[in-house]
Design goal:
Oligomer: heterodimer
Number of helices of chain B: 10
Distance between the termini of chain B: 31 Å
CATH class of the largest domain in chain B: Mainly Alpha
Largest sheet of chain A: none
Mean pLDDT of chain A: 67
Mean pLDDT of chain B: 80
CATH topology of the largest domain in chain B: Rna Polymerase Sigma Factor, Chain: A
Radius of gyration of chain A: 34 Å
Helix content of chain B: over 70%
Number of strands of chain A: 1
Strand content of chain B: under 5%
Number of domains of chain B: 2
Distance between the termini of chain A: 100 Å
Order of helices and strands of chain A: HEHHHHHH
Shape of chain A: elongated
Shape of chain B: globular
Largest interface: A-B, 37 and 61 residues
Low-confidence stretches of chain B: 1-31
């Protein structure tokens, strides 16, 4: 194959491509353009590259999805705990006027029957939407 | 059965090709290849200096390899504007990744790898939207009597034939897959050895040979009108 006439002809024809040249003075200006682009900051590596990671797009997308998943999971978990704590408050027998006023002020409350030593204000979303106050409807009914 | 015969034919042809390769490579006018000792040592020094922020050192590295990198990308894309962008981006990417260059291979091979990967990714995104923007054929072609005779033999009106031939040749190249086009470009146009190509494309020498064989067969079929 290497010495067949057709193969020789293909090689000869391909030699034509060696004579295809860019416009005159193209290469005399090429490196200058590259250097000026680097100096403008295009060559600056991103923070993950500086840390030694050379992330491919697929890996970067995967990492982004994992991060999003963790955030969603975190929000969902926090929300569940808040609901639990609110339920305990709602059905707590010592729902006194004092604790009601504390809640109304947006302060932290720990029920006597609650196993949560810290208490809760709810999720960051709750605090944002309800202005930092949790006033469950059940609590109002229970205090009568 | 047919596949077995085909693979036997490819193996046999590959062996024959390998035997004739050495003799042909001595005759073939190739672009300047990097010198192994002095220049390679100098590359190491320039890389070290460039890592420390010496832009003049990096400028020298760019000047040293710009023609070969541009030519590789140009022959792959058949488009001067795309080649210009990709060649520049190759050197910018190389600069930003200079700290991760461990020196396992030469700077020359490393930059080639960046160019090859960038070009193949670009071509995969471009898919079938091929728009030729060809460079002019250099007048130095007159100094290649064998090629001139070949072109003249095909048609007496050489000026017209050259432009037409150039377009057909580039069109045929664009019909090859990216990896086959790359092997033809690096070997038959750029004059790199099988070993260098295997190193750049991260495959073994046998793969390079079989790809080259297949690519030439394809080109023969596409250009049959010009090879009679």
């Amino acid at each position: 194959m290497g010495s067949s006439p057709d193969n020789d002809a293909v090689e000869k024809l391909l030699r034509l491509k060696r004579y295809e040249q860019p416009p005159p003075r193209y290469f005399s200006e090429f490196s200058g353009r590259v250097i000026s682009r680097i100096e403008r900051g295009e060559g600056r590596s991103s923070w993950w590259e500086r840390l030694g990671f050379d992330l491919r797009p697929a890996l970067a997308a995967g990492a982004g999805m994992v991060a999003c998943g963790l955030i969603v999971y975190g929000v969902a978990t926090t929300d569940g705990e808040a609901v639990g704590a609110t339920s305990v408050m709602a059905f707590s027998p010592d729902s006194s006027a004092e604790s009601k006023s504390l809640l109304a002020n947006g302060e932290q409350t720990v029920s006597a029957n609650s196993t949560n030593p810290v208490g809760t204000y709810g999720t960051p979303i709750d605090r944002t939407v309800f202005g930092g106050r949790i006033v469950p409807a059940q609590f109002q009914l229970g205090s009568q | 059965m047919v596949n077995t015969m085909k693979s036997f034919a490819i193996t046999k042809a590959t062996k024959l090709e390998a035997e004739t390769e050495q003799a042909q490579e001595q005759q073939r006018p190739v672009p300047p290849a990097p010198k192994e000792d002095a220049e390679a040592q100098s590359d190491v020094d320039l890389v070290k200096a460039a890592r420390n922020g010496d832009m003049r050192a990096y400028d020298q590295l760019v000047q040293r390899y710009q023609e070969r990198i541009y030519a590789t990308v140009y022959h792959m894309t058949s488009n001067h504007e795309d080649a210009n962008d990709l060649a520049q981006e190759t050197f910018i990417k190389a600069y930003s990744a200079l700290k991760s260059f461990k020196g396992d291979s030469s700077f020359y091979t490393w930059v080639y790898r960046i160019a090859v990967n960038k070009t193949i990714n670009f071509l995969k995104q471009r898919k079938n939207k091929v728009s030729l923007s060809l460079n002019d054929v250099d007048f130095n072609i007159e100094n290649d009597p064998e090629l001139v005779a070949f072109v003249s033999d095909k048609t007496p009106r050489r000026d017209i034939a050259l432009a037409e031939l150039q377009e057909k040749l580039n069109g045929a190249m664009q019909k090859l897959s990216e990896v086959h086009r790359m092997v033809v470009t690096l070997h038959d146009v750029q004059g790199l050895s099988h070993e260098e190509i295997a190193d750049i494309m991260d495959c073994n020498v046998g793969t390079v040979r079989s790809r080259l064989f297949y690519a030439r067969q394809q080109l023969q079929a596409y250009l049959s009108d010009y090879l009679k």
